[in-house]
Amino acid sequence: MSRHDTDLNLTPELLLRAYAAGIFPMADTRDTSQVYWVDPKHRGVLPIVDFHVPRRLRRTVRNSNFEITCNTDFAEVVAMCAQATKSRGDTWINPSIEVAVNELSNMGFAHSVECRQDGELVGGLYGISLGAAFFGESMFSRKRDASKVALVHLVARLNFGGYRLLDTQFITDHLAQFGAVEIPARDYLIKLEDALKYQATFPAFAKGTQWDQCLAKTLSN
């Protein structure tokens, strides 16, 4: 993995250029003011069409244990992704990154999926959208399966909106169960270049028969 430290002002425009070139920012800790650019030799991608949903999770999604919304509380989702937890003592999301992605949300280039239970935000994720590529950034869960349910709804929406690439940056055991794979950077850049030729639409308020069919199809894999 290549790493390039920078003191540059992290603007939304700079972020978009970086993602289009196949690199992304991270910070060493929540409290640092610096970010560094990451250029992995291998990249994690999650299949959109052939996304696999484990059987138990299918039941959870179908039972509607969570209220799902999109883009209604983006800043809070990012803030909760940036919080330290017992299993994760620190985070790569520093204030510079947080401010920049919130600005991208205001510009329509970043989106969130929220899971609520009894009105409380208990899980979710956010990412950046460019062309027909979606760059998954981070997720959090305060209730069992909340982030997983958010991921299922994200993939269904990406299918519904015509996306061609879901970038997960790295591979984890959590993502591998859904069919995520690691590919060489050169192959990733080919997929990215192709996805950027198209313009997908993030369907934040998807509903109706077509949406129901799309969600059902996602759950059937």
Structure in words:
There is one protein chain. This protein is α+β, with helices and mostly antiparallel strands and 221 residues long. The chain has one domain (42-89, 109-219): Leucyl/phenylalanyl-tRNA-protein transferase, C-terminal domain (Aminopeptidase), CATH 3.40.630.70. The protein contains eight helices and ten strands. It has helices at residues 12-20, 55-62, 74-81, 95-107, 146-161, 173-176, 185-195, 209-219; strands at residues 2-6, 24-26, 35-39, 42-45, 67-70, 110-117, 120-130, 133-141, 165-169, 181-184. The strands form two sheets. Strands 5-6-7-8-9-4-10 form a seven-stranded mixed β-sheet, with helices on both faces. A three-stranded antiparallel β-sheet has the order 1-3-2. Helix 5 links the parallel strand 8 (133-141) and strand 9 (165-169). Helix 3 packs antiparallel against helix 4. The longest helix is centred in the C-terminal third of the chain and has 16 residues, at 146-161. It is globular, with a radius of gyration of 16 Å. The two termini are 32 Å apart. The model has no long low-confidence stretch (mean pLDDT 92).
